[in-house]
């Protein structure tokens, strides 16, 4: 049974702080990992993807993957109120398999 | 502009009625998907299609049907057999289902049973 778990939150951080969002997955064979941001009532939009162990940075966002421990995280540096949204973690087992989404973590950045 | 268009944005269905949600893309993507999202929940896959005239059931296909007669179009019908259809429905597409290709989403259709 494929599962992707996220803490539903809300995770509240002050403006300018680092927000840390975590995601664990159950299938050890998972290969690709995606982070989507979803504003209330809107569709998800891709922030970044990662498929190698370690860190991947893109602007204020850093994705971290640890396949041995089966978790992937997203760090948001210098958090802004506009970052307030639900962040969805998605995992793909391997080529030809569908994305499995976690339930999402709601992030609130307070001015 | 390239993208995915879903219509309508809001849809109301009476008990026992079938309704069809439209999804059109002009990204020349082979793969298309339908997801359902309930409040505070993640996305659950209903159906997906890798190529024209072919589609596969996802995790929650019961009470839904799809067709893929054209590459650009992947309509979803919510039948009367779906007992709890009130949800946010998202259509997505990707170049294909292989590798690290991201999925692009439409703006969604919010379906409510009245």
Describe it.
The complex is a heterodimer of chains A (111) and B (114). Chain A has 111 residues and is mostly beta strands. Chain A has strands spanning 4-5, 11-14, 19-25, 32-38, 45-50, 54-58, 61-66, 71-76, 85-92, 99-101, 105-110. In chain A, β9 (85-92) and β10 form a beta hairpin. Chain A is globular and about 40 Å long. The model of chain A has no long low-confidence stretch (mean pLDDT 92). Chain B has strands at 4-7, 10-13, 19-25, 31-37, 43-51, 54-57, 64-66, 76-78, 87-94, 104-105, 109-113. Classes of the chains: A mainly beta (111), B mainly beta (114). Chains A and B meet through β5 and β9 of A and β5 and β10 of B.
Defining traits:
heterodimer, A: 111 residues, mainly beta, five-stranded antiparallel β-sheet, 0% helix, B: 114 residues, 11 strands, 49% strand, globular
Radius of gyration of chain A: 13 Å
Query: What would you call the shape of chain B?
Result: globular
On the 0 to 100 scale, the average pLDDT of chain A is: 92
Q: What best-fitting shape of chain A do the alpha-carbon axes yield?
A: globular
Name the helicity range of chain A: under 10%
The number of helical segments of chain B is 0
Structural class of chain B: mainly beta
């Amino acid at each position: 049974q494929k599962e992707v778990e996220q803490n539903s939150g809300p995770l509240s951080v002050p403006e300018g702080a680092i927000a840390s969002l975590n995601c664990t997955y159950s299938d050890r064979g998972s290969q690709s990992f995606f982070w989507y941001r979803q504003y209330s009532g809107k569709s998800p939009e891709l922030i970044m993807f990662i498929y190698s162990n370690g860190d991947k940075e893109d602007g204020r966002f850093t994705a971290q993957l640890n396949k041995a421990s089966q978790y992937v995280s997203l760090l948001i540096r210098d958090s802004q109120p506009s970052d307030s949204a639900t962040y969805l973690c998605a995992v793909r087992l391997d080529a030809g398999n569908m994305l499995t989404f976690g339930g999402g973590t709601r992030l609130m950045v307070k001015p | 502009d390239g993208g995915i268009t879903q219509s309508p944005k809001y849809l109301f269905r009476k008990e026992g009625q079938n309704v069809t949600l439209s999804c059109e893309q002009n990204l020349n993507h082979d793969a298309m998907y339908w997801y359902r999202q309930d409040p505070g929940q993640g996305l659950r896959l209903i159906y997906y299609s890798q190529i024209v005239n072919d589609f596969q059931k996802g995790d929650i296909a019961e009470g839904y049907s799809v067709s893929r007669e054209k590459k650009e179009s992947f309509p979803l019908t919510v039948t009367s057999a779906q007992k709890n259809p009130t949800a946010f429905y998202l259509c997505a597409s990707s170049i294909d289902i292989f590798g690290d290709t991201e999925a692009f989403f439409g703006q969604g259709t919010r379906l409510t049973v009245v």
